[in-house]
Sequence to fold (124 residues):
Amino acid sequence: MVTAMKYFADTYAFLEIVKGNPNYKKYLTQHLYTSVLNLYELYYILLRDYEENTAKKYFLQFKEFIISIKDEYLFDASKIKLTYAKSRISYTDALGYAMALAFQMKFLTGDRAFKEMAHVEYVI
Fold:
């Protein structure tokens, strides 16, 4: 029996899933997690590029994947953001990466800033 992997999907990953990127298809059968901030970003992008019904549809569809944000994740994310300051990682991505590390899962993204980092599943 094959066990599903656990991934923390960032906004980039969810956007590619919504767009139907075939490189992300295999992740639909895996255990995906995210934060409310990633879904907030996704909602904004879909609202901007599509329409409100589409934005709400995907926000509500992915809402079940939200992990609550704890103080220690914010503290770790701040250290990550400082460590990788030259990469210009966003606050949301630093938090997502910190949460992925805390839960011992891969950080699923297509963001080039994470391409060479440990514990990252880089997919474009």
User: Anything to note?
Assistant: The first strand starts at residue 6 and ends at 9. The domain at 6-122 is CATH 3.40.50.1010 (Rossmann fold).
